[in-house]
Write a structure and sequence with these properties.
This is CopG family transcriptional regulator. It comes from Thalassorhabdomicrobium marinisediminis. With 70 residues, this protein is mostly helical. 67% of the residues lie in helices and 0% in strands. The protein is built from four helices and no strands. The longest helix has 19 residues.
Length: 70
């Protein structure tokens, strides 16, 4: 039986413009809204990321994070 899709979790998020544009593009291509696209990505996180480059990309993002907040 499929999981019921309830949009009961709401949380404030801060996203970069580039990140939000990419989310909107992915959602549009997949025929989803942004919330559904995020749910898909996180429910399938382990199978949609490239484990070989994820750690490196995360370190790069973290190293630039403070500068992005200014």
């Amino acid at each position: 039986m499929p999981k019921r899709f309830r949009l009961t979790r709401r949380f404030p998020v801060a996203m970069t413009e580039d990140g939000y544009r990419r989310l909107r593009k992915f959602a549009q291509e997949a025929g989803l809204d942004e919330g559904e696209a995020l749910s898909f990505l996180f429910e399938n996180f382990d199978s949609v990321i490239d484990a070989d480059t994820f750690g490196h990309r995360l370190r790069l993002f973290n190293s630039e994070l403070e500068a992005r907040k200014k």
